[in-house]
Amino acid sequence: MDPKRALIHYFTGTGNTGHAVQRVADELARAGYAVTQYRVERKGALPAGAFDLHLFAFPVYGFSAPALFLQYVRELPAPPAGTAAAILSVNGATMAGGNVMPGCSGGSMETVARALQGKGYDVFLTAAVSYPANWTQMMNPAGAADQQLIFAQAAAEVAAFAAKLLRHHSGRGGSGRMSSLVAGVVAFVFRLYGRRVLGKLYVADRRCTACGQCVRNCPAGTIRMGGARPVWRGNCQACNRCINLCPTQAIQTSVVRLLVHGPILALAEVVLAVLVVVYGWPLTSGWSPAARAAAAVAAIGVLLVVVSLLQLTLLEGVLGWLERRSWLRPLFEMSFTRRFRRYLAPGFGPLSDG
Ligand SMILES: Cc1cc2nc3c(=O)[nH]c(=O)nc-3n(C[C@H](O)[C@H](O)[C@H](O)COP(=O)(O)O)c2cc1C
Predict the structure, then answer these.
(1) Label partner for 319 (CA 20 to 30 A): which of 35, 201, 203, 273?
(2) Which atom in ligand 1 lies closest to the alpha carbon of residue 195?
(3) Ligand 1 centroid to residue 133 C-alpha, Å
(4) pTM of the prediction?
(5) The domain made up of 5-179 is a member of CATH 3.40.1280.10
(6) Where is 161: in which H helix or E strand?
(7) Residues near ligand 1 (Cβ within 6 A)
(8) Is the Cβ–Cβ distance between 304 and 229 less than 8 Å?
């Protein structure tokens, strides 16, 4: 008899999800499955044929599955009705008082499950595991001893998940502690807007050798060489592969960019919102209080959308121009991440060097 076939679809930024998936694949293979792993990255041909079991695994960014992964799931062809599928979200654990604090999936697994069920998959199992947090752009990754503790806990979580998968055990778990409404809003805003802004905070400092490894390894192909330094365009997934993979640790979070895209822009938005309300209020003098309040909220909403669009286009153009002035470059290269460690899961390295 032919062995059962399993297909693992996964995305990984810094290798944690790849690490978890390899362990699950090993367990499936031990149980007699023929396992194919498919790394969702840019465009590539989907493995052909029918599979008895599908696993969808992804890291969580801003309580969401990576935008690229969600798009991939939404574009998958429909399988034979009732095809078995499971979902694994790989979260970021941190340490607090010597204890491993698991991450939070928000509503990411439910969103992926809904997309799969809409295609006819039977999603029988969802679970979350926590690996070391990889958000080097904003926080110093765990040191070696803490990583060991987190990996020990992750190994147990992955083994428990694989055992359930093999027993075809039904279960929904691991969303974390957040209200689904709040988590859903955060995830939506992050996918649409947050991840793109995070990409605009990077700068490559003078240690950059223009080797192009960040360009070649960006899973969304959003980094290009602009002269002798990389430039981050608009489709950043916020996976933090570039900052962690750079061989000379030249990629940093620019403090100037962080201030402009963060507090300075937020302050400008507050001022503009106040002006809109102050000058718009008299124009609605004949309206009911509810209609006036609704109009004010709508006007502020439109204002925020317009400012966000200008932020990612006009403002970004101005910042890019200023950054290219050699006398201003040191200002843009000011960063706190120069002192941070870098994080890649064991065994994870560049996709290609050529
Ligand atoms: C921008 C960003 C946002 C993140 N948001 C979350 C989150 O909402 N919840 C969580 O548990 N972990 C979060 N993490 C941590 C990663 O999900 C975690 O480190 C994961 O194991 C990375 O997997 P990978 O190496 O396969 O990319 C975030 C990481 C980044 C870079």
Answers:
(1) 273
(2) 1
(3) 6
(4) 0.94
(5) no
(6) helix 144-167
(7) 12-17, 59-63, 90-92, 103-104, 106, 131, 133-135, 198, 238-240, 345
(8) no
